[in-house]
Design a protein that fits this description.
single chain, alpha+beta, five-stranded antiparallel β-sheet, 6 helices, 7 strands, elongated
Amino acid sequence: MYKNGYYVEKDIQKYREIIENLYKDFYHTTDNWNDASLSIRLAEIRFMDGKTDEAIKLLFDAKESMKQCISVHASFKSYSHMQRIINHLYELKPLDTSKMDFYDFYEILKNPAKASFNYCGRKYNIESTEEDDGSVSVCLDGIRYRSVNDMMMNAKVDGELISQDPLRVKDIEVL
């Protein structure tokens, strides 16, 4: 509200105070959704203050919180939130290809790319391609998805959503 001036006069300082207090008072006391939301907002503030390392740490915390949120209650909103976290995170630091997880596919596949990974002992290839309209679609195991977010929400192996147990995704390699 204060950040963008919705129904009140825009006041960035007031917005900062609210987020700082909410983070201090409620972080890890409610649910993963709120933790991720607060971490993202505080990371944006830290970045504006020139505290990039602190912003990166907050975004990694947000990513972990959102992983938990998705594994318990996946929704379009939670996947979109994760995509936002990943976008912000890798705007601030390069992707470390030695420490990738399933949700890093948001970064890897946002442009045309090929990658592979193991899931439950089986190797899978995944590829993103640019469509005629400029959008990026994803093909995994012969199934085409309209976007990376669509793949995240709907990709299944043996009838199970990959995103419900992303820790089974191992050995991600960008080809």
